[in-house]
Write a structure and sequence with these properties.
Strand order of the largest sheet: 6-7-8-4-9-12
Distance between the termini: 18 Å
Structural class: alpha/beta
CATH topology of the largest domain: Rossmann fold
Radius of gyration: 34 Å
CATH class of the largest domain: Alpha Beta
Shape: elongated
Number of domains: 3
Strand content: 5-15%
Length: about 625
């Protein structure tokens, strides 16, 4: 109800101002828009984009010339062939037709390489355009928001804009595969311990300046498909058992029958023997093709589905092989990919086999060649042997790649925002202390100091509407999430323990589930309390306007009791409120609970905010003024 909001807010007008100079003025350690216009990151992206655009123009011109040459060569070969057939040229001219067709094939291979290089250059240019978009603040238009990964009822992701439109993920994502994307999401949705965070920070520091490596890694990964490639199906195929065990007899016969049949055919053509041996051998081979068609088809179908998210990853792993790392976590990842034959060499072998296997897609040539040579048996049994030799390691390969993709996304953030600090993450009791903390997703955030030094510490935040209360809490929560994932944070310095963030900011009712707004709040608070009990002295709560779905008296009682329970569990955090009973906790728990506020000023009829955090309880309110400015005739 409007009354329930306006009355408690107005009451604070009668309280004294507890403003204190002990709170520092806002500082801006982040990179401003002007800074980003001259940053090394912008210069690097612009240089690479320009170079890629020039390369694309040259490749387009080269491709057009090759296409014309292919056409002329094909027409020339056809003209010579028909000239010989119609006796316009001597038979020796067939050699010329053959040479022209060989030239056509060579040109086709070269043209395919140019097309692939053009595709790679387009991906490379797109990466640099995305980098410029992030620096320009237009990253909210990126298509990948991660919204599909948001778990229902997650204890902080929705409130803190970790996933979804305008989210940290949307700003951060620089992955090339779906598995890398899932790894990035996983790190943002669940904080790591201090040791893991330190290892990731070391990797991010090293990867930050390695723009060429990071872009080569992601470019090659994205070349595997129009969308992000998903190797999950290939991993499932690689880890599955062989389906060819019951037809191994065919593999042995495939080494005997085809040579016999081909030799018999050549001998028969030269009148050395009769045609009977050739026809017997061919009949037996056709019988084998028919007998084994079911397991061969099953293997091919499984391989075709899985290979779509896998082919050509050898170049991605080759980029990893070519880089030299010093950070222990990166060295360990790279070492795991180079034990024994390198992953790159194994994938090159697989790609070569798949090139042979793809003859199966040729509707005209495949049946003839397969009947004459038992082609499928030779190739697919070798593919199956590759799986037996390498299948158990495939999951580890792509796990390592996914981690490198996620770390590269973090490193891109570090590269583009060099003024963001690497936080100090510690295990132990709840603690969060920040100097000049700002919201990392705002283009021009105002920064404030925040200090929650020990379990049971809390900020009770009062203030005018739109003055920055919720933004401060989101800055506290999102920077904590970033710190515990391994990212730099928007602050001059941040020390934080391995906390479990708990938030309640964007509750809504659900007509589909028959849940009212108030009951949705009750359910949320039950979840938060359960989580706080499961992690005593290790949770961070961020609560916005508690129990707004009920009357003033009951809201005050419930809000106060909830705060007491959380603080007694050793949680730390912040709550925004208009209820003075919550503010009284500061006198009941001196040194732990602090009243702080934001305020507005009306000057010359204009309402302004400085978004500066001050000690004490707010002494102004703007609820009625906001209503008037919205066109509601309140007097």
């Amino acid at each position: 109800m409007l009354w329930d909001v306006v009355v408690p807010t107005t009451l604070v007008l009668f309280l004294p101002d507890f403003s204190s100079p002990s709170f520092s003025p806002p500082r801006r350690p982040f990179m401003t828009q002007r800074d980003s216009e001259t940053s090394p990151a912008r210069a690097a992206y612009e240089t690479r984009r320009t170079r890629a655009t020039d390369d694309l123009a040259a490749l387009d011109s080269r491709g057009a010339r090759l296409a014309n040459l292919r056409t002329f060569t094909f027409l020339g070969a056809a003209a010579v062939f028909f000239a010989v057939v119609f006796e316009k040229l001597p038979r020796v001219g067939m050699l010329g037709a053959f040479a022209l067709m060989v030239g056509y094939v060579v040109l086709a291979v070269i043209h395919a390489g140019v097309i692939r290089l053009e595709d790679r250059t387009k991906v490379y240019r797109a990466l640099n355009e995305q980098g410029l978009a992030r620096l320009d603040g237009t990253w909210r238009n990126f298509p990948e928001t991660g919204a599909q990964h948001l778990p229902e009822g997650h204890l902080y992701a929705g409130d803190l804009d970790v996933l979804g439109k305008g989210s940290l993920f949307q700003r951060l994502d620089e992955t090339g595969t779906r598995r890398g994307e899932a790894t990035l999401v996983g790190w943002l949705l669940a904080g790591a311990d201090a040791k893991t965070v330190a290892a990731r920070q070391g990797a991010v520091r090293e990867l930050g300046p390695l723009l060429d490596f990071r872009q080569a890694l992601i470019t090659e990964a994205r070349m595997a498909g129009k969308d992000k490639a998903d190797p999950s199906k290939f991993i499932a195929w690689a880890e599955a058992g062989s389906t060819l065990g019951r037809i191994r007899w065919a593999f042995a016969l495939a080494h005997v029958l085809p040579p016999f049949t081909i030799v018999a055919g050549l001998a028969s053509a030269n009148d050395v023997v009769s045609a009977l041996p050739f026809y017997v051998g061919l009949f037996l081979q056709i019988g084998i093709v028919v007998a084994i068609r079911t397991p061969i088809r099953q293997l091919w179908e499984a391989l075709s589905l899985s290979e779509r998210g896998f082919v050509r990853f050898e170049q991605t792993f080759a980029a990893i092989d070519a880089q030299r790392f010093t950070a222990p976590s990166l060295v360990a990842l790279q070492k795991g990919l180079q034990e024994g034959p390198s992953v790159t060499s194994r994938l090159v072998a697989f790609t070569r086999l798949m090139g042979f296997a793809e003859l199966k897609n040729s509707g005209q040539l495949h049946p003839l060649i397969n009947a004459l040579t038992l082609w499928d048996v030779h190739v697919l049994f070798r593919v199956d042997r590759w799986r037996e030799a390498n299948g158990k390691g495939v999951r580890g390969w792509f796990e390592a790649l996914a981690q490198l993709e996620a770390l590269s996304s973090f490193a891109t953030w570090h590269f583009e925002r060099p003024h963001d600090a690497f936080p100090t993450v510690i295990d132990g009791d709840a603690r969060l202390e920040a100097v000049a903390l700002g919201h990392p997703l705002l283009d021009q955030p105002v920064c404030n100091d925040v200090r929650l030094p020990s379990p049971g510490s809390a900020l009770v935040i009062t203030g005018s509407n739109m003055s920055g209360k919720t933004t401060l809490m989101r800055a506290m929560g999102l920077n904590t999430v970033m710190a515990l994932a391994g990212l730099p944070v928007c602050a001059t310095s941040l020390t934080v323990s391995t906390l479990h963030p708990l938030t309640s900011m964007r509750l809504k009712d659900s007509l589909e589930r028959g849940v009212s707004y108030f009951y949705a709040e009750v359910q949320r608070m039950k979840s938060l309390l359960d989580a706080a009990k499961a992690h005593p002295r290790a949770t961070l709560f961020l609560l916005d306007e508690l129990f707004m779905g009920t009357n003033t008296k009951e809201r005050q009682i419930a809000s106060r009791q909830l705060m007491v329970m959380l603080l007694d569990l050793g949680a730390i955090g912040a709550v925004t409120t208009h209820d003075l009973s919550i503010c009284e906790l500061a006198s009941e728990r001196p040194g732990l609970v602090h009243n702080v506020h934001f305020r507005d000023e009306v000057t010359g009829g204009d309402m302004t905010f400085d978004y500066t955090l001050r000690e004490g309880i707010v002494t102004t309110t703007n609820a009625l003024e906001v209503l008037r400015r919205a066109g509601v005739p309140i007097r």
